Amino acid sequence: MREILQSKSFISFLILTLLFVVYTLLLVVFITPVTAFDIKIILTVKQIFEFLPLPFVVAVTDFGFSSYFIPFLVPLFVICLYLKKYVTFVLITAGYLLLVPFIQIVKNIIMRDRPDVHLQRIAETEFSYPSGHSLLAFFMGSILLYLAETYVKNVIIKRILFLIIILWMLVIPFTRVWLGVHFPTDTIGGALLGSSIACLVITIIRYFEKPVK
Fold first, then answer.
1. What is the SS3 assignment for 113?
2. How far apart are CA 168 and CA 162, in angstroms?
3. Cis peptide before 115 (omega within 30 of 0)
4. Nearest to residue 103, comparing CAs of 193, 34, 199?
5. pTM, 2 dp
6. What are residue 200's phi and psi, to 5 degrees?
7. Which alpha helices (H) appear in 63-213, and where do they start and end?
């Protein structure tokens, strides 16, 4: 147990959690100037990337937080079953499903309003902080990076997977800002919290299932 508590993943969990708490407190205290800066970023992003088609961006953003993502768990389940990593699959699935109501709880505590309607390309009405899409993208992305690093032995395939996963983790928050449904600081908060929870799940996985050497 001591080895687990001293592991990089658990230490990362503690650091990221602390960063999220401090970041959130600073955001609440300086909400007015931060929001003004956020709006400038949203307007800049919308202007620079105006050429992107709305249906395409909506499809991409939905892959970060909807039933579109569930089919992705099927091949992941097959791989875990093949490797006999049952605990890994259960933790990933349970974490993904439990994070959805957890996000709503955090949002209802912070109660940050969404960007104004005139900034939104699609309608979103619930509270804004943290970004649920960004949280889940960084949660799943961090775990997938761990699995790729642990179980993929081919260096070229591993690098390709890393590139795809990291790109996906970054694109999801970008779509939320482009759509005007989240402030940039919402996506940063989601990324911090999602990465933190992922590190905790990875710590538990490492406790129950020793990585292949």
1. coil
2. 10
3. no
4. 193
5. 0.90
6. -65, -45
7. 70-82, 86-110, 132-151, 155-178, 184-208
Q: Note whether 136 and 62 are within 8 A (CB).
A: no
Residues listed for the chain: 213
Query: Is-contact 175 60, C-beta < 8 A?
Result: yes
Asked whether the beta carbons of 55 and 181 are under 8 A apart, the reply is: no
Whether 34 contacts 180, CB under 8 Å: no
The pLDDT value recorded for residue 212 is 47
Distance of alpha carbon 100 from alpha carbon 135, whole angstroms: 10
Nearest to 143 by CA among 206, 75, 213, 84: 206
C-alpha span between 116 and 67 (Å, rounded)? 27
Q: Give yes or no for a contact between 185 and 38, defined as CB atoms under 8 angstroms apart.
A: yes
Cα dihedral angle (104, 9, 64, 149), rounded to 10 degrees?
A: -170
Q: Measured between alpha carbons, how far is residue 103 from residues 4, 18, 155, 168, 189 in Å?
A: 27, 17, 36, 20, 11
Cα gap 196→13, rounded to integer Å: 5
Three-class secondary structure of residue 145 per DSSP: helix
In 3D space, the residue among 60, 181, 174 whose CA is nearest the CA of residue 125 turns out to be 181
Rg (CA), the chain: 18
Distance CA 21, CA 38 (A): 19
**Using one digit for the tens of pLDDT, what is the confidence trace for 7-60?**
888 999 999 999 999 999 999 999 999 999 999 999 999 999 999 999 999 988
Two structure tokens written together for 110 = 């912070």
